[in-house]
């Protein structure tokens, strides 16, 4: 090659690269949902126990922007007269919005939560008592019933009430392309034409109940329940490990390479001590609640026995009063009868002696 030949490097136009980048962004956006999540991704789930001081059990649960607070009071002496002598505890559920607004689904959600609790709580242990569940919706951004049910499950665990099995809820939706979208936001629910379903699972994977609306056929519903069962395992893990976020935070600190080994050791020690202290406190709280439940049961049994003894004493007193009055009536009747017989005999004797005229 001659050195005089002018050789120039090839210049590639930047337009194709820009077009390719735009295509990649468009493809990426096409695979995302309206709030930026992937199609199979759930929103961040936050759980907090014992969020209300005066309640026997309370929780605060958020699915993304959907925020729900639940408080449980009871069991306590029943205040409704028509269920005072019921052998099963009466459960009342009230769901309200922080900002007053009309919502026709509130009655349906009340019914679903109440029926679920009636089947899960061991109501026979608390006769002639009531359990009140108050749910306050702070913010509704979709999957509301699922958030309510998970909040109730966490508050129920905090209350220490005996239950047959734990439960967790998952909300699923079918997209326009018949793809399963977990934990839909409010915008997705409002623009869904294929249907939305909220499923309640037991810890063993069984379906306790579900609430659906839209056109959901048998095969589609079966596919939704299978996907929801896998997602419910994650929720159960969070419900059973309330210190999850604390442990994750400590794990991030311990795995940060910028921190010296001494600092990581100190942080690890404090993390272990803090986790042990919190676990000990939770253990004491659960033991106290179990003791309170046993004490309440013993008090109820003692109260029932005292009421029965009082009933027997009142019945014995009534019978004694009845017998006393009956004896008085018999004595009066016998005295009147004897007086009449004596008068008749005296009159007969006077007639025989001629002292009294028979005319």
Automatic annotation (TrEMBL):
Classification via Pfam families: RNase_PH
Spans traversing the lipid bilayer: 266-283
GO function terms (MF aspect): RNA binding
The Exoribonuclease phosphorolytic domain, residue ranges: 41-162
Biased composition (Polar residues): 1-14
UniProt KW keywords: Exosome, Membrane, Nucleus, rRNA processing, Transmembrane, Transmembrane helix
GO CC terms: cytoplasmic exosome (RNase complex); nuclear exosome (RNase complex); nucleolus
Coiled-coil ranges from the UniProt annotation: none
Source species: Blastocystis sp. subtype 1 (strain ATCC 50177 / NandII)
Similarity annotation: Belongs to the RNase PH family.
GO annotation (BP), single: rRNA processing
Residue stretches of biased makeup (Basic and acidic residues): 32-53
Record's protein name: Exosome protein Rrp41 like
Residues covered by region (Disordered): 1-20, 32-59
Compartment(s) of residence: Nucleus
